[in-house]
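Subgroup meeting minutes
Present: P.N., E.W., G.H.
Scribe: E.W.

1. P.N. recapped why we're keeping a running log of single-chain structure predictions: easier to compare across weeks, and new members can see raw inputs and outputs side by side.
2. G.H. added today's entry (202 aa).
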Amino acid sequence: MKYYFLVFLFIVILCTQRKIGDADKSQNAVQKVIVIQPLGSFKIEQAQKVLAEIKTINPKVVLRSNISFAENSYYKPRNRYRADSIIKSLKNTIGEDSVIVGLSNSDISTTKDKIKDWGVMGLGYKPGRACVVSDFRLSVKNKSQQFYKLVLHELGHTAGLPHCKIKTCLMRDAEEGNPLDQEKSFCKDCKSFLKRKGWQLI
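Output recorded in log:
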């Protein structure tokens, strides 16, 4: 009987230490430097606004000068740029401590299922080191607000978040539409995940 009690006590202590260790890791998590990279003729005023907004969740953010789109990213038949090619090019311009988001006013696309060139608002791999967003398909009325939500959505993917089923969450799947006005913030679960990654969310 005494033997079983000691085994039980050992298991309880082990589990407690593991939880404390996980909590310490969460508290010590450091969010990566977010690099904002305007592409093509993206408006500098718009990029500076994104910079100011991101600083509210991470002070370690850098705004770079505009660069041209990667040469192999232009898809001439539809006059737009391949998001996957842009991401591949961007991720080679940063260090391991950073994640980069490309900002575009031009239309972007990717391959979806059997459709070779599918227009998108943004693209980010989970997890990943780079993502790209475009305001080309956003509502004219709420473009600035929608654009920032889109930036957070794709950065969420790079942190490792999948799409969320909660309709008001920023990680909601667009499902071939534009539900950004319905999205309010990250849901409780997505917010907890990002906090563990070092995001400074209220």
